[in-house]
Amino acid sequence: MQVNSNGKLRSSLSEINVTPLVDVMLVLLIIFMVTAPMMNSGINVNLPAVETRTRPSAGGLVLTVTKDRYIYMEDRNVNLYLLESRIRSYFSGKEKKVVFIRADKDVPYGYVISVLDVIKRAGVETVGMIVDKKDEK
Questions:
Q1: Are 91 and 121 in contact (CB under 8 A)?
Q2: Are 49 and 133 in contact (CB under 8 A)?
Q3: Alpha-carbon gap, residue 78 to 122, rounded angstroms
Q4: Burial class (CB within 10 angstroms; exposed 0-12, middle 13-18, buried 19+) of 71
Q5: What is the Cα–Cα distance from 32 to 26, expressed in whole angstroms?
Q6: How does residue 78 score in pLDDT terms, banded at 50, 70 and 90?
Q7: Is residue 103 in a domain?
Q8: Residue 41: is its pLDDT beyond 60?
Q9: Rounded CA gap, 93 and 73, in Å?
Q10: pLDDT, tens digit, 9 for 90 and up, residues 93-136
C-alpha cells in the first residue's frame, strides 16, 4: 500500500492473479483433449477382406473412394473430372508414378474402373489396391 499526495491509500499491482488464467487454460486443455481424436479419425472406408494384405509403398499416392462415391486424394476431396489434372500435377517432376486405391467394398465395380481409367489417362503405370486381411478362424 502506498499513500498518494491526497493522503489516500493506493494499492500497487505487484502480483498478478493467475487463477483466471489457469481456469481458462484448463478449459482449453479439456476442449483440445475431447476434439483431438475426432480430427484424426481419417476417411472411413469399409475395405474388402482377402487372405493376403497389401500395404502402400513409400512414395505412392493413395486415392480413397468412399461408398458415397467421394474421391479423396490423400486427405483432400477431389472431383472425378478434376482428378486427372490433380494426379498429373502431383506427379510432375517425379520419375516413379505409383497410385494405390482404397475403395469401399460397397462401391460399384464400374465406378472403380472409371477412377482407374482416369488414373491411367494421367500417365500412371502402376496401380495397386489396398485391402484388409481376412480374420483367420
A1: no
A2: yes
A3: 14
A4: buried
A5: 10
A6: very high
A7: yes
A8: no
A9: 18
A10: 888 889 999 888 889 989 999 999 999 999 988 888 887 777 76
**Rounded Cα–Cα distance for residues 100 and 121 (Å):** 15
For the chain, how many structural domains are there in total? 2
78/118 same-domain check:
yes
Which amino acid appears at position 64 of this protein?
T
Question: Largest Cα–Cα distance of the chain, in whole Å?
Answer: 90
Residue 6: domain span? 2-39
Instruction: Indicate if the pLDDT at residue 44 is higher than 80.
Output: no
Q: Are 53 and 112 members of one domain?
A: yes
Q: Are residues 61 and 114 in the same domain?
A: yes
Q: Report the half-sphere exposure of 86 (CA within 13 A, side-chain side).
A: 18
Distance between CA 105 and CA 44 in Å, rounded? 12
Beta strands in the chain (DSSP E): 2-3, 9-10, 49-50, 61-65, 71-73, 76-78, 98-103, 126-129, 132-133
pLDDT value, residue 93 = 86
